[in-house]
Write a structure and sequence with these properties.
two-stranded antiparallel ribbon; 4 strands; 156 residues; single chain; 51% helix; 5 helices; 2 domains; heme; mainly alpha
Length: 156
């Protein structure tokens, strides 16, 4: 509770070009909890972290592997999400100069860059999946000593 947090005091224009120095950030005690008081539903994230860890413990004691894996995964994901929820919109706080801290909008690309990456991803990801599937199909099967010695025109 005594840890100082960062709070953005200026308006953030989410559609403007990124300029990390065009904002005002102050250090305040308890600022990391401001998102929880503004949006009480966010308290579910740290609660899920604790419940996931407890469920993983009992799943481990009961030797239920599926329950243990799922609940420990939920716990780890919720712990990481708790940090993000607590710090939002700040991604990387600066201990030297709070104004130099990076927010979500400072660290993102422009709309044009994101659109170009969307188009490129929509074209190339299916090609990569198709090629990987084809290679998997061609190379399917176990290689044993008899297959290597039969001289049937394969890579061996």
């Amino acid at each position: 509770m005594g840890i100082d947090g960062y709070r953005v005091t200026s308006l953030l224009d989410k559609a403007a070009p990124s300029n990390p120095l065009m904002k005002t950030i102050v250090i305040e005690q308890g600022a990391w909890f401001a998102n929880y008081s503004a949006q009480p539903l966010l308290l579910a994230v740290p609660v899920l972290a604790v419940l996931g860890a407890i469920a993983a413990f009992f799943g481990l004691k009961a030797r239920r592997e599926g329950t243990t894996i799922l609940s420990s995964g939920l716990s780890v994901a919720s712990i990481i999400a708790t940090v993000g929820v607590s710090m939002f919109p700040i991604i990387l706080p600066s201990s030297l100069d709070p104004v130099s801290s990076l927010t979500v909008w400072d660290a993102s690309s422009s709309h044009l860059t994101l659109f170009i990456m969307l188009v490129v991803s929509a074209i190339f990801i299916p090609l990569i999946v198709a090629y990987t599937s084809w290679v998997y199909k061609v190379l399917w099967g176990k290689v044993d000593e008899a297959t290597i010695g039969d001289k049937s025109g394969h890579a061996y």
